[in-house]
């Protein structure tokens, strides 16, 4: 992938190019940014610029055979590590090398894809992937060898926050003092989940969400959309190009999440003193609990976003409201007054607690039922 294929982020491209051209290449970097902002495509473009000895601020004029290898993501000095879990193909001790075929497919189809897209590709939506100690041993082994082409070796660790403590401790010394001409690029959406000893050894680059103009231009170019349609989708995407692509294909899981969410808040609102609505909430909790843990976490993050949008609408910050509901009979402007300064923090905390407990393998049905009963009380709180 070349720098010109990476959307926006011009100041970061310039910084990375200058660091290579000036010979000031950090041995460990941490790219931090929200989903769909381009951290992974940028890391691949940076690796290509470095390994193929390209010049002139773009991936041109370098080693042509090297650039061709990058087109297939098959360069022998480019290594990847990412969260995995056992599936039908790999029953025990899964590591990234077992799934390189699926990884290349994902990068070809969805270079801006998220963790949930990756888990769907591996058919492990009901599991939580991780970068474990087996992966750490593979990384140590692959980087202990000399580079095939006599230059740099690059290790890209995607979703580094999914690295468990055993793996992080195994890699600590290697990241601090890697072999000569070895570069680590760690990619994360939440740097707070990466242990301090790893984070402190990396030069951190923060990626902002993409601008609406950047997403609009990409949609018009890549999907041949009319400009007014692309503008509307770019606004809804809220800086996330992956979400924008899902909206083009109408393939977003947000449609299902919206259905679940609206049934949930309607039942919670009716549940005060209404036994049948309590039964609806318990049935709802059972339905969501049957899905995989990653789906549950993704849905609860969607709920957080929905409540925040409702609060912004309630506080008349219309320019920040990008959500457009598809469900007939549901009007965000009528729901918004029920989300206010007296309950938004409590709602947010309860949702984040539920995500925390689901991540730690708590009983999803109990967690979601408890959350539903608390939501019933919080939605009936009066504004201050």
Itemize the secondary structure elements and their pairings.
Blueprint: H1 10-21, E1 28-32, H2 39-51, H3 64-71, E2 78-81, H4 100-109, H5 115-122, H6 133-144, E3 153-157, H7 165-176, E4 182-188, H8 196-199, E5 203-206, H9 212-223, H10 227-237, H11 241-249, H12 254-270, H13 275-289, H14 293-314, H15 332-335, H16 344-359, H17 364-379
Parallel strand pairs: 1-4, 1-5, 2-3, 3-4
Helix pairs in contact: 1-2, 6-7, 9-10, 10-11, 12-13, 12-17, 13-17, 14-16, 16-17
Account of the protein in words:
This protein has about 375 residues and is of the alpha/beta class. The chain folds into 3 domains: about 5-210, P-loop containing nucleotide triphosphate hydrolases (Rossmann fold, 3-Layer(aba) Sandwich); about 210-250; about 255-380, Up-down Bundle (Zinc Finger, Delta Prime, domain 3). The chain is about 50% helix and about 5% strand. The protein has 17 helices and 5 strands. It has helices at about 10-20, 40-50, 65-70, 100-110, 115-120, 135-145, 165-175, 195-200, 210-225, 225-235, 240-250, 255-270, 275-290, 295-315, 330-335, 345-360, 365-380, and strands at about 30, 80, 155, 180-190, 205. The chain has a 5-stranded parallel sheet with strand order 2-3-4-1-5, with helices on both faces. Strand 3, helix 7 (about 165-175) and strand 4 (about 180-190) form a beta-alpha-beta unit. Helix 6 (about 135-145) runs parallel beside helix 7. It is globular. The model has no long low-confidence stretch (mean pLDDT about 90).
């Amino acid at each position: 992938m070349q720098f010109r294929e990476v959307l926006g982020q011009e100041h970061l491209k310039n910084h990375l190019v200058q660091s290579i051209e000036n010979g000031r290449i950090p041995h460990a970097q941490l790219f931090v940014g929200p989903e769909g902002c381009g951290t992974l495509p940028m890391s691949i473009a940076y690796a290509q610029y470095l390994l193929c000895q390209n010049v002139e601020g773009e991936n041109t004029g370098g080693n042509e055979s090297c650039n061709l290898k990058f087109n297939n993501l098959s360069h022998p000095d480019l290594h990847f590590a990412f969260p995995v879990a056992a599936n039908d193909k790999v029953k025990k001790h899964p590591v990234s090398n077992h799934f390189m075929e699926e990884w290349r497919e994902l990068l070809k189809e969805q270079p801006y894809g998220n963790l949930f897209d990756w888990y769907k590709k591996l058919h492990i939506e009901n599991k939580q992937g991780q970068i474990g100690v087996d992966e750490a041993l593979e990384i140590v082994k692959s980087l202990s060898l000399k580079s095939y082409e006599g230059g740099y070796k690059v290790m890209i660790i995607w979703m580094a926050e999914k690295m468990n403590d055993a793996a992080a401790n195994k890699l600590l010394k290697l990241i601090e003092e890697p072999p000569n001409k070895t570069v680590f690029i760690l990619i994360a959406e939440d740097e707070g989940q990466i242990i301090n000893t790893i984070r402190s050894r990396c030069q951190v680059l923060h990626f902002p969400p993409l601008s609406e103009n950047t997403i609009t231009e990409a949609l018009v170019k890549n999907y041949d959309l009319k400009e007014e349609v692309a503008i509307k989708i770019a606004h809804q995407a809220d800086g996330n190009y992956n979400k924008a692509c899902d909206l083009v294909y109408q393939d977003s899981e947000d449609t299902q999440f919206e259905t679940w969410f609206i049934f949930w808040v309607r039942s919670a609102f009716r549940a005060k003193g209404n036994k049948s609505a309590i039964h609806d909430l318990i049935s709802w909790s059972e339905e969501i609990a049957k899905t995989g843990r990653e789906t549950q976490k993704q849905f609860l993050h969607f709920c957080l976003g929905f409540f925040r949008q409702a609060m912004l609408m309630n506080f008349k910050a219309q320019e920040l409201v990008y959500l457009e509901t598809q469900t007939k009979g549901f009007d965000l402007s009528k729901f918004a007054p029920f989300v206010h300064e007296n309950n938004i923090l409590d709602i947010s905390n309860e949702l984040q607690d539920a995500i925390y407990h689901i991540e730690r393998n708590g009983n999803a049905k109990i967690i979601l039922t408890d959350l539903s009963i608390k939501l019933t009380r919080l939605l009936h709180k009066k504004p201050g």
